[in-house]
Specification:
Layout lengths: L1 H17 L12 E4 L5 E6 L5 E6 L2 E8 L5 E5 L2 E6 L2 E5 L6 E6 L1
Antiparallel strand pairs: 1-2, 1-8, 2-3, 3-4, 4-5, 5-6, 6-7, 7-8
Length: about 100
């Protein structure tokens, strides 16, 4: 019985050492949004959920998580992205506003 417990303990420690942790600045794959009037932008949400990197109209900005009554809202100065499910809107970027957007 001791031998089984010892083997299980060694296996647990070994597997725990193989676990990976994403760095705080890691992002998920960028999501492409298509909007009315043929506009589009991409958003790469941080895995920890506290920021998003948005590329639109030739500009790239990092927005931080902000309070929202519904959905996910990120802001930085006058830039804002608000998303809920597959839908989003983006303001404060060149070529905007980007309204009635849907993830592709």
């Amino acid at each position: 019985m001791r031998r089984v417990l010892l083997c299980l303990s060694v296996l647990t420690v070994t597997l725990a050492g193989c676990a990976t942790v994403a760095p705080m600045d890691a992002t998920d794959a960028p999501i492409r949004y298509a909007c009315k009037a043929g506009k589009s932008f991409t958003a790469a949400y941080a895995l920890h959920g506290k920021r998003v990197v948005v590329k639109a109209g030739g500009a790239t900005k990092t927005l931080k998580l902000a309070r929202s009554a519904s959905g996910a809202r990120y802001t930085a100065g006058d830039a804002e992205i608000w998303s809920k499910g597959p839908n989003a809107m983006l303001h404060g970027f060149p070529g905007g506003p980007y309204d009635d957007c849907r993830s592709q």
